Amino acid sequence: MAAALSAQALQALLARHGVANPALAQELGSLVGERVAHLEAKARDNAQRLRMTEQVFQSTQESIMMTDTAGAIIAVNAAFEQVTGYSEQEVLGQNPRILKSGRHDAAFYQDIFDSLRQAGQWRGEIWNRRKNGQVYPERIVIDAVRGDDGKPEAYVSVSSDVSALRAAHHQVDFLSHHDSLTLLPNRQVLAQRVRDAVTAARTGERQIALLLFNLDRLQRINDSLGHETGDAMLQEMARRAGVVAGPNDTLAHMGGDEFVLLLTDCLDSDAIANTAGRLIEAISRPVQVGGHDLILTASIGISVYPRDGGTPSELLKAADVALSHMKDTGRNGFRFFKGEMNAHALRWMSLETHLRRAIERGELSLHYQPQVAIADGRICSMEALLRWRSPELGQVAPGDFIALAEDTGLILPIGNWVIRQACLQNKAWQDAGMAPLRVAVNVSAHQFMVGNLPEVVADALAESGLEARYLEVELTESVMMHDSEATAAQLARLTDMGVSISLDDFGTGYSSLGYLSRFMLDKLKIDQTFVRNITTEPRSAAIAQATIALAHGLSLVVIAEGVETEAQYQFLKAIGCDEVQGYLFSRPVPPDQMENLICGKSSLAHLA
Ligand code: C2E
Ligand code: MG
Ligand code: MG
Known about the structure:
It is built from 23 helices and 21 strands. Strand 18 (500-506), helix 19 (513-518) and strand 19 (523-526) form a beta-alpha-beta unit. It is of the alpha/beta class. The chain is elongated. The chain has four domains: 2-58; 60-166, Beta-Lactamase, CATH 3.30.450.20; 179-337, Alpha-Beta Plaits (2-Layer Sandwich), CATH 3.30.70.270; 348-607, Alpha-Beta Barrel (TIM Barrel).
């Protein structure tokens, strides 16, 4: 249409100038028409682009602001309005200065202008202020828009409000340093505060004290009233302890029901004790929960810098020892570590705590060591030896924990477990069709002292179904030294039941020939200290030889322990020893390996 109109107009125009050439007019007309159509299409295209740009401009998440070269705002988008709180009407013609937070100095803004002028761009973070006065961080890119001549015609800034991101970062940071329930600093923060306090205290006269405290029996509240109540109690106790803490002290939550109050400015022990007393008093005030008065108490262990340690972990350990002491002697009180408890006691205590849980956590096991008859070189019995693998302490040798178990009375449940386990295992092997063997268990003097060993043994036999003749009890000379009447009576009952009795470590205690005749024994075990030197030291050889003669005279079987070399074995054989046990044949091994040895799937080392 446009092309036709133009052709007519052109013909008239040419005619007015004396050119009557319709073909030329036609050609020029269509040329002009094409040109016009092209321009119209381009205009449509531009309009569409503009609409799209406008749409992007308005719908983008980033806030966009355009200024002219004089710095007056000429356009902003919806995101800008939302972030700053200003409408477009309010800011048009204004200088972006209206967003200034006051957090940056003149040099900061000068730097922006300089780089816009030189590089045509600036990017960075800037603190701005919303219309409501709130200051917020923005990540921003400002670009110069240049004209065809290369000169800036306008500036466009695109920015994103990073306050939410920052807040999230802060939250993550906060939670990684604080307990989420009580919002108190955690172990990590405490360690840092202790280090800081130690550094500060080195120069002054003041002491630092670490009050490690437990809420006694919180678990009971959790169990009976539910975890929500338990959590509410924890929060309340944290609040109360916070009131006791001074402005420079740190109250930290170590997890569970355990807290630490770090006092950084203590005059003397009296001041520390005073704070501990107030803490106990604050915790023990009743709490109203669902119409009930609930009462919790606290036990506190206290360590003091520099007396009890110089690092956070030393101080914590010391406080922990003091706390266990407190708990052992009743609760609802405090204890100082003092420092006279040495490293030995420390290990002892942590051993004890772990050992207490060893049975229920299934950390105990039995290994078995074959006992070999010299006459035919075959396994005739085996000794069950206790093994303890603690996840925290690793493998702990019986020599390191049996004495502790005896001191603490833990030997009773442990000893009972050993007897029961050995019977069950031995019966299981027999039920599996393996050649029946006797299993020997070690029994300590404490187990005899309680007086019920025959009952414990009878129960284990009944439960497992093992015949008594396949069980042997190993006792040491110390057993016979205690209350010999009661011991003799128990040994007699065991013998009556059909259980064998052997005397372990013979020669190391107060060996008395009297014992051997007075007590009913079946077997004598020559201690490894004699066996070790049997081929090199005539005295050991003589003792071994005399022991064998004596035992045979009393109709006792003799076994030598700790046989490690072929020479020792040959010597023992030559002097008439009946049985041998030692690394030469096999170390104590777990049940599956013992099974292979019994079945003959694997052979004894000495015979291999
Ligand atoms: P024990 O009853 O005299 O056991 C023999 C110890 O000697 C075992 O040490 C065994 O592994 C080790 N042994 C065996 N053959 C050799 C050898 O050829 N050379 C050397 N150097 N050592 C050998 P283990 O298992 O460390 O037990 C040490 C002690 O702990 C036992 O001495 C026993 O008195 C006590 N014990 C082990 N298990 C129990 C238990 O269940 N109850 C009680 N009350 N005490 C136990
Ligand atoms: Mg033994
Ligand atoms: Mg022994």
